[in-house]
Amino acid sequence: EPEVTQTPSHQVTQMGQEVILRCVPISNHLYFYWYRQILGQKVEFLVSFYNNEISEKSEIFDDQFSVERPDGSNFTLKIRSTKLEDSAMYFCASSRDRVDEQYFGPGTRLTVT
Amino acid sequence: KNEVEQSPQNLTAQEGEFITINCSYSVGISALHWLQQHPGGGIVSLFMLSSGKKKHGRLIATINIQEKHSSLHITASHPRDSAVYICAVVMDSNYQLIWGAGTKLIIKP
Predict the structure, then answer these.
(1) Which chain B residue lies closest to A97 (C-alpha atoms)?
(2) How far is A80 from chain B (nearest CA, A)?
(3) How does DSSP assign A5-26, residue by residue?
(4) What gap in Å lies between CA A89 and CA A87, rounded to an integer?
(5) Cis omega (within 30 of 0) for bond into A8
(6) Is B40 exposed, middle or buried (0-12, 13-18, 19+ CB in 10 A)?
(7) Containing H/E element for B90?
(8) Can you tell me the mean pLDDT for A39-67?
(9) Beta strands B103-108; B10-14: pairing state
(10) Across residues A61-69, what is the average pLDDT?
């Protein structure tokens, strides 16, 4: 069964450093998403991506965040200058259509020290 | 103000019991998702529905669009059903998925 994969599973970085979180969505899916979950809190929408551009983004997704689909398979989330409050689990998801079941990756736990 | 409210926050039951988790929302939606999050953090989609009722195995999800309410039922609950169950809605204004805080379910043998 196809699945969404994410790398790395855990990333530790120092405040102010840039990080890139990687995701490989399901191959025939067209919509891609990033979510974050701060420990003990609910999951929050960050951004959706379709046809090589951002289709929606939340207030959380400010100028320090960017997303890219550099090739036909990877979907990346870049945080330019990490802050302590960026520490969270980041989930990637993909779906065939805009309103459709979403398939989630296992998450990347980002720890900013 | 939370657009998506779930109840109860925590639920402990004995194996075999019938479980109901409720979700109310205050925004216009295109669809509603029920998801399961395991202790390790992984998220699995259980249902997506925009009207009526769906059933998959021992799980049943219903939605009442007029009342802005959905329920997730688990029949013949089992310890392996222990997880956090999350309701999330697709807002019809921008298609963002807005998540509830989740219901932590523990099924005791």
Answers:
(1) B95
(2) 24
(3) EEE-SEEEE-TT--EEEEEE--
(4) 7
(5) yes
(6) exposed
(7) strand B83-91
(8) 95
(9) parallel
(10) 96
- CB within 8 Å: A104 and B45: yes
Residues of B in contact with A94 (CB under 8 A): none
Written as six digits, the tokens of A25 are 């969505």
Structure tokens at B48: 């997506």
Reported as a single tens digit per residue, the pLDDT across B30-63 is 999 999 999 888 999 999 999 999 999 999 999 9
Of B43, B28, B33, B31, the closest CA to residue B72 belongs to B33
Asked if residue B8 has a cis previous peptide bond (ω within 30° of 0), the answer is: yes
A64 DSSP 8-state letter = T
Mean pLDDT score across all residues of chain A: 95
| The two three-digit tokens of residue A110, written as one number | 């980002």
The predicted model gives A60-79 an average pLDDT of 94
Report residue A89 as tokens. 């689990």
Asked if B95's CB is within 8 angstroms of A101's CB, the reply is: no
| Per-residue burial over B55-74, b = 16 or more CB atoms within 10 Å of its CB, e = otherwise | eeeebbbbbeeeebebbbbb
Average confidence (pLDDT) over B100-108: 97
Contact present, A36 and A88 (Cβ < 8 Å)? yes
At A14, the amino acid letter reads Q
Tokens of A38: 């701060």
